[in-house]
Amino acid sequence: MEDQNMREQAKMLNKGGKAREEEQDMGRTYHSGPVIMRGPMIPSSDSNASLLSADADTDWLHMDPWRVLRIQAEFVDGFGALAELGPAATIFGSARTDEGGPDYRAAQRMGAGLAKGGMAVITGGGPGIMEAANKGAALAGGKSVGLGIELPHEQGINRWVNLGITFRYFFVRKMMFMKYSSGIIVCPGGFGTLDEMFEVLTLVQTHKVDTMPIVLFDKKYWDGLFEWLLTTVRDRGMISDLDPGLVVRTDDPDEAVQVILRNRQP
């Protein structure tokens, strides 16, 4: 009798192990708009890669008009979701920042401060700095917005977002950041953060958008880059002088918030 019970328990364990193996075999999850894919159903490239690829087969040229309709739909969805957002500021920063680290805590404090000041907080909707800022805004009872992007290794919109949109195309997403923000805080980050920061600087410096405050948080992180811009690049005539009131570098989260709140747009 005891041997029979042991055999049955072994069978149950084997079944559990097989179930876990089958669950693991499903692989990662990929989101394409509202569609969820796993395993072999995941495409080898995303919408941005398809748009930018040089196609040898010219038949693809006839598909671009249909792609334009998808792009148009993304603009419509974004404008519709954010039209009544009210005054807002965007916080950019790395998705790789560890939860609980000094940059994470600072971003959470800035998100909370902006929310308490009556501003919605917009981020890229991901982990790291973005999650921290959304968390601060949400816990302060404010509007916590995440503008995500479809990527092969995306982790989805973080759980502290109470209004989230996932975009296929970077340029549509960037438009939403700029259209609905009256101030920008840039925390330490990589290529994505640098891309977003230089996009803002370019649009403001060329007067394509109204002047807005740009706060760079963590002076040590940014000082080397801006020393190069204001010496090597400027001295060779590649850029004109930056408005000294346009870019503020600080190590104080509260100062960053106050710079944005002073320039709050209705």
TrEMBL record:
User: Gene3D superfamilies annotated for this entry?
Assistant: 3.40.50.450
- Domain of life, per lineage: Bacteria
Is Oxidoreductase there in the keyword field? no
Catalytic reaction list: 9-ribosyl-trans-zeatin 5'-phosphate + H2O = trans-zeatin + D-ribose 5-phosphate; N(6)-(dimethylallyl)adenosine 5'-phosphate + H2O = N(6)-dimethylallyladenine + D-ribose 5-phosphate
Q: Which NCBIfam families match?
A: Rossman fold protein, TIGR00730 family
Protein's name according to its UniProt entry: Cytokinin riboside 5'-monophosphate phosphoribohydrolase
The UniProt record lists the EC number as 3.2.2.n1
Q: What class of enzyme is it?
A: hydrolase
